[in-house]
UniProtKB/TrEMBL annotation:
Residues 4-39 form the F-box domain. Transmembrane segments: none annotated. This is F-box domain-containing protein. InterPro entries: F-box-like_dom_sf, F-box_dom, LRR_dom_sf. Pfam families: F-box-like. The gene is 107359395. It comes from Tetranychus urticae. It comes from the Eukaryota.
Length: 388
């Protein structure tokens, strides 16, 4: 039997396993029958992802289609094929510069015709201040914070992904994006810079890369967290010797916290920081050079709702701390999972719902599932809330 003689149901199953744009286009051109079936398969695609970067693991699901940087996605029929696109990745290859103002911009027609478009992934280091003018219904964007002063108020935006910038433009966040729910950003200042804006009342997930100009400079990134009263999950990657903490401000909503310090943070500062979040359930303090066994004992004792403690890479923590956690749990009737060996893979077995897949778009606005176990560099661009 020839391939084209298979029942349509079988062909749809075969086409459903094709996730490369070039392969779908080639099949689309074979005959009228395949033309129709490929159109059916393309309607299932919600994410159009570019193969621009070397990292990332392809998820061969119906809702994803991948394309190579050299492929043209300005073909007129693509907007008719991919009618349900929700997130499109147009990140340029390294070294390339693109502009939304260029009349021949390759994907502008595809994006304009995408009636369900909610997210746009591009290079956040570029100045795309006119992005929201072209696509006012976007809810997930990558931006350059330095150009935020030129943005108009947009209540639709829920997620922002940005690369390195200064703290001062953050003042505009609650003004321009009053309904922001997730923020991923890197802060780098030559001098100590405080956040002086109003509260971000709807922010639930924050991921910050804190890098002062010099290691000895103070970092006020944790002070910024105090302006997020609804914050539930935080991932902080810091390269500094000292942090500023206001221990009078508490956040009882924070449940998930990842701290990855690439320098020696004093234990007293870390203790003060943890005291601000008394209801933490999932805590990771990775690669900490000062954390010791007695500190683990204090953490367990002072956080009554803690169920997961991950200190992998903190080389001063030993099996003595593990024994204490085990005995403490038995004595007080608590169930606490503790991981301290750098190569401990048991955490993935104990928590199979937590993903380690490196992907640009993750399905579900779920920090623990899509962020907790990953390195900061490989956090998703967007977490699709899947609410429509």
């Amino acid at each position: 039997m020839l391939l084209n003689e298979l029942p349509e149901e079988c062909l749809l199953l075969i086409f459903g396993s094709i996730n490369e744009l070039k392969d779908l286009i080639n099949c689309y051109k074979v005959c009228s029958k395949w033309h129709f079936l490929i159109a059916e398969r393309a309607r299932k695609a919600k994410y159009l992802i570019g193969n621009t970067w070397t990292y990332g693991q392809k998820d061969y699901a119906l809702n994803r289609v991948y394309y190579a940087p050299e492929e043209c996605i300005n073909r007129p029929y693509l907007s008719k094929l991919f009618v349900n696109l929700k997130i499109v990745d147009i990140s340029p290859p390294p070294g390339n510069i693109i502009s939304f103002n260029a009349p021949t911009y390759p994907v502008l027609k595809l994006l304009r015709d995408a009636k369900h478009l909610k997210g746009l992934i591009d290079d956040p280091s570029m100045d795309y201040s006119d992005k929201l003018a072209h696509f006012p219904n976007l809810e997930m964007i990558t931006i350059n914070f330095e150009s935020m002063v030129n943005f108009k108020v947009n209540a639709n935006v829920k997620q922002i992904y940005s690369h390195k910038g200064r703290m001062s433009p953050f003042t505009w966040l609650p003004v321009v994006f009053p309904n922001l729910e997730r923020l991923h950003a890197s802060i780098s200042d030559e001098a100590a810079a405080q956040y002086v804006g109003s509260q971000l009342r709807n922010l639930k997930i924050i991921e910050l890369d804190l890098r002062p100009h010099q290691m000895s400079n103070l970092v006020f990134g944790f002070q910024f967290l105090d302006s997020c009263p609804a914050l539930e999950s935080a991932y902080i990657y810091a390269q500094t010797l000292s942090i500023i903490i206001d221990d009078y401000t508490k956040n009882k909503n924070l449940k998930d916290l990842v701290l990855s310090f690439q320098s020696e943070i004093d234990w007293d500062q870390l203790r003060m920081l943890l005291s601000k979040y008394p209801n933490i359930k999932h805590l990771a303090i990775r690669y900490n050079k000062t954390l010791e066994d007695q500190h683990v004992i204090h953490i367990i004792s002072s956080l009554p709702k803690l169920v997961l403690l991950d200190v992998r890479g903190s080389y001063k923590v030993t099996k003595k701390a593990a024994a204490f956690v085990r005995n403490y749990s038995e004595r007080y009737g608590r169930s606490i999972k503790f991981y301290f060996r750098r190569d401990d893979e048991k955490i993935a077995i104990d928590w199979p719902q937590f993903s380690t897949r490196l992907e640009r778009v993750s399905c579900g606005l779920n920090f623990m599932k899509h962020c907790f176990l990953k390195e900061f560099l490989y956090l998703p661009r967007f977490l699709d809330p899947m609410d429509d």
